[in-house]
Amino acid sequence: MKRIALFLFVIASVFAILVGCSNSDSDSKSETNDKDKLIIGIDDTFAPLGFRDENNEIVGFDIDMAKAAAEKMGVEVEIQPIDWKTKENELNSGRIDLIWNGYTITDERKEKVLFTKPYLKNSQVVVTLADSKLAKLDDLEGKVVGIQALSSAGDALNANPVKDKIKELTEFDTNVLALTDLKAGRVDAVVIDEVVIDYFMTKEKDTFKLLDESLAPEEYAVGVKKGNEELLDKLQAALDEMNEDGTAAEISKKWFGEDKVLK
C-alpha cells in the first residue's frame, strides 16, 4: 500500500512540475513573442525626435517611426517618458520594451542591449551663444561646459583631448536645461546632438552658433532587451519594410525636410 501511495505521489509531483513548466513557457512566450503592445521609452525633451508640442502631446520623428513600425508589426504602441539616466535599467526590468529616442550606438551600450541596424546619422557638436568669442574646440580651455547626463555627449567629450583643458563639466538631466543655463550664462558651451541643436536653431534664430569642429560622428538605433532576439528581428523586418515602401523617407521629410534615413 505504501508503495502504491509513493508511486501516486511521484506521478502527481511530476505532473505538477510539467504543468508548471508549461505555464512558465507560456508566460515567457506572452512576455516576449506575443505582445499586443510595445512600450517605447523616450526622453520627452529630445526635439525633434521625441518631445512635447504646444498641446503637451508627445510628437517627433522617432515617435512617428515607432508608430509606423508598430502598425506593420500588428501591435499597439505606448510612448513612455523615462529618466534618460536609467534607460537601460528601465529596459532590462521590463518596464519598457524598446529604447527609441536618439539612442546612440556605443561599445558600452552594446554590452547592455541589442541594437537594430542604425537608421539615422548624427554628430556630437559644441554650441555656444551667437555673440560668444568661442570659435573652435581649443577655445574651450578654462571654460564651463554642459552636457546631458549619461548621454553619448559625455563619451564624445571624454574621447577628445580638450576634455582635460576645460575648467568644469556640468551635467544636466536634459538638453533643454543645459541650453537654458547656456542662455543664462551659467555655462559657456554645451556638447549636444547635432540633430537636436539644428532643430533649436530653427526655433531660436540668432541665439546660438556651433563651433567650427565637431567632436564625433555617431549613429542612432533602437535598443532591445538582451535575449529578446525575436522582438529584434520582428522590429528590424518592419523597419526594413518602411525603408522599402517609402514610409521612413516620408517621415524624415516631414521632420527634416529631406530623406536622412539610413538604408
UniProtKB/TrEMBL annotation:
<dbReference type="Pfam" id="PF00497">
    <property type="entry name" value="SBP_bac_3"/>
</dbReference>
<feature type="domain" description="Ionotropic glutamate receptor C-terminal">
    <location>
        <begin position="37"/>
        <end position="258"/>
    </location>
</feature>
<dbReference type="InterPro" id="IPR001320">
    <property type="entry name" value="Iontro_rcpt_C"/>
</dbReference>
<dbReference type="InterPro" id="IPR001638">
    <property type="entry name" value="Solute-binding_3/MltF_N"/>
</dbReference>
<dbReference type="InterPro" id="IPR018313">
    <property type="entry name" value="SBP_3_CS"/>
</dbReference>
<keyword id="KW-0449">Lipoprotein</keyword>
<protein>
    <submittedName>
        <fullName>Amino acid ABC transporter substrate-binding protein</fullName>
    </submittedName>
</protein>
<feature type="signal peptide">
    <location>
        <begin position="1"/>
        <end position="16"/>
    </location>
</feature>
<keyword id="KW-0732">Signal</keyword>
<comment type="similarity">
    <text>Belongs to the bacterial solute-binding protein 3 family.</text>
</comment>
<keyword id="KW-0564">Palmitate</keyword>
<feature type="domain" description="Solute-binding protein family 3/N-terminal">
    <location>
        <begin position="37"/>
        <end position="259"/>
    </location>
</feature>
